[in-house]
Amino acid sequence: KGILEVTRRYAKKFSGEFGGSGERSDGVGAPPKTATPVQGPVGYENIMDVCVDLEKLVDVIWVSGTPSLQVQYLLSIALLLTSYLTSFPASPRPTFWLLRKLDIAFASLLRGENVDTGETLGGFAATSRKMSITEMVRLKSLVERTRVVVVEVMGRGERLEESEDDGEGNEDGDMEEDQEVVGRWEMEIARVYELTIVELGESLGNSGADGP
């Protein structure tokens, strides 16, 4: 239900409404009649709102403690994020925050333990199974695609303002601050799925599925 709602909101992006105008035609030449508007969430206006909704889904799925479900749902969520990024002005802060959370989740599932705390994940205590080869290949393809998309989106110059200027800064100070921010986001671009890449390299390498 959560993923379906996100896709519906995305389908209505920039419309300011959900469910259309409520107008319909009863036949050729018949005047349009107004139907009862469909109630529901409004369409997305920016990637920030997309990230907020997707992060909620990640949090719910993560606490389920069922690796087989976690892998499939997280792959779906990560694919949605990658697919939607190009449709909105860049919003680095929420985008990189969600990508970092997904990176930790995938790397942890590949390793079978939380990469931050070292604790064994629920569902892995009684089995050595982590991701299947098919899942790892899908994840590798998604990671590669996402890194390309992030470079494209962050490099096109169109960005959503994430903080308001207090109006008291000087021009030189603002330029220095802008340069620091740009440098920070460039570092974040390079770090997209960095933990997952390492774990995939080890897992696929050990399985012999990574090729020559």
TrEMBL record:
It comes from Trichoglossum hirsutum. Residues 161-180 have a biased composition (Acidic residues). It holds the Pfam family TFB6. Coiled coil: none annotated. This is Uncharacterized protein. One of its GO terms (cellular component) is transcription factor TFIIH holo complex. Residues 17-36, 158-181 are annotated as: Disordered. It comes from the Eukaryota.
